[in-house]
Design brief:
single chain; 127 residues; 7 helices; mainly alpha
Length: 127
């Protein structure tokens, strides 16, 4: 998502609990959920509101997006899920950038990213 889409997701959240939002808070939300697809993030907020009266945090959106992806992949097959949901940005992106040009360091960082993808439910990730 871009910052405007993240702002729209946070605005939807604010409608539910009247929280304070400023530019610093938006930056933190972008850092936490900016790699998610916009529509899935919006759907994840709705899902949370229907199932909980708790205080919504980024982890709730991440978990619900994972559920949305799982439900979608069960209904359409895993190949369709890959097309509809590209892989997440590597959590170790900066380390990967620093490792560029160093084969051993790059290999280690690539293994970290592959583990992230497997944890997110992507099958067929190279070992």
């Amino acid at each position: 998502m871009n910052i405007q889409e993240v702002a729209a997701v946070v605005a939807k959240i604010k409608l539910g609990d009247n929280r304070d939002v400023d530019s610093l808070i938006l930056q933190e939300w972008e850092n936490s959920i900016g790699d998610l697809p916009y529509k899935d993030a919006i759907d994840a907020v709705t899902m949370f509101r229907r199932e909980s009266d708790g205080y919504l945090q980024p982890v709730h959106i991440i978990r619900n997006v994972k559920r949305i992806r799982e439900e979608r992949s069960q209904g359409q097959g895993i190949a369709a899920s890959y097309v509809a949901h590209p892989a997440s940005k590597p959590a170790n992106w900066l380390a990967m950038c620093k490792a560029w040009g160093n084969e051993a360091a790059w290999s280690r960082e690539l293994d970290v990213y592959r583990a992230q993808l497997r944890a997110e439910g992507y099958q067929g990730v190279m070992p």
